[in-house]
Amino acid sequence: MGTTSATQHDTGSGLDKDRDGRGGCFGRIARSPLGWMLMGMAGVGLVSGLTATGPGPVPVLGAAAAVAVYCYVMRRVARRSAPEIARSGAAREVLLGGGIGLGFILVSALLITAFGGYSFTWAGNGFLSVVWTAVVVQIGAAVTEELLFRGLALQALEQLWGSRAAIVITSLFFGVAHLGAPGANAWSGLAIALEAGVLLGAAFLWRRNIWFVAGLHFAWNTTEQLLGIPVSGHAPEGLFTVDVHGSALLTGGSFGLEASIMPVLMGVAIAVPMLVRAHRNGGIKTRRRAPR
């Protein structure tokens, strides 16, 4: 997209060079994995902060803007293609990921209910308004978080230290990022790191597709919200009211289902075959060796 003219003459972007030579150094820093990761996270994070809690379709518009920022950073700053965000096959990937996310949460909630941890009653709220709010908010959250953690952080760290280190670091950081949520504690942070950080990271390494991971993430959060279960400590309006009984290890307590042992065990069980498939498909990259 415009790369021919960019290579023929100075576009004035400052990434390659400027008249006193300082732009060349800045360009090299920006094009390094940590450089484009930080620039991308700043841009996507800013868009998310401005739109995540906006009225009506604003979170969805914010997700679209975040994708545009991501594409710009990848193509113009990192100077790499972004096949992980390609429109071709996106609908199929979203549906596949969404099916896995839906099944993951429904089975987890069913198991907790079977062990006496949850009981559900119809809330009687407006069906369409509740569903609409959940869908638009969770689209914004799923897309922006996956661009930040899997699209930018995981891929940049993978270039530096390989896939294994990247998934460990991004999983831990994902858990730490949720420690500020209501009802969070050390266990909930570890649970998020294992069930979400590892599962979503494994899903990306397997499919190498942001749409797949965003679909999984979206279905996960939306199903939780509609069931009336707190989503990472936040309790937005749902279609049901859930009563919690018994041990917080089983139910997740006030933090919600994600702090339950059930989805932790299920998340790891789903992530392992994804990682095996990623390894077989060549999706697990080793640490980049410095040239001698």
Summarize the structure in words.
This protein has helices at residues 3-8, 22-31, 33-51, 58-77, 90-114, 127-161, 163-177, 186-207, 210-227, 248-251, 261-280, and strands spanning 118-122, 240-244. The protein is globular. Strands 1-2 form a two-stranded antiparallel sheet. The chain has a domain at 89-281. The protein has 11 helices and 2 strands; from the N terminus they run H-H-H-H-H-E-H-H-H-H-E-H-H.
Helix content: 55-70%
Strand content: under 5%
Q: Are there runs of 5+ residues with pLDDT below 50, and where? A: 1-22
> For the CA atoms, what is the radius of gyration?
20 Å
Secondary-structure class: mainly alpha
Whole-number average pLDDT?
90
Main sheet properties:
2 strands, antiparallel
Number of helices: 11
Give the CA-CA distance, first to last residue.
34 Å
Number of strands: 2
Structure characteristics:
CAAX prenyl protease 2/Lysostaphin resistance protein A-like domain-containing protein; transmembrane; transmembrane helix; endopeptidase activity
Outline the fold blueprint.
Blueprint: H1 3-8, H2 22-31, H3 33-51, H4 58-77, H5 90-114, E1 118-122, H6 127-161, H7 163-177, H8 186-207, H9 210-227, E2 240-244, H10 248-251, H11 261-280
Antiparallel strand pairs: 1-2
GO biological process, one term: CAAX-box protein maturation
Keywords: Membrane, Transmembrane, Transmembrane helix
Protein name: CAAX prenyl protease 2/Lysostaphin resistance protein A-like domain-containing protein
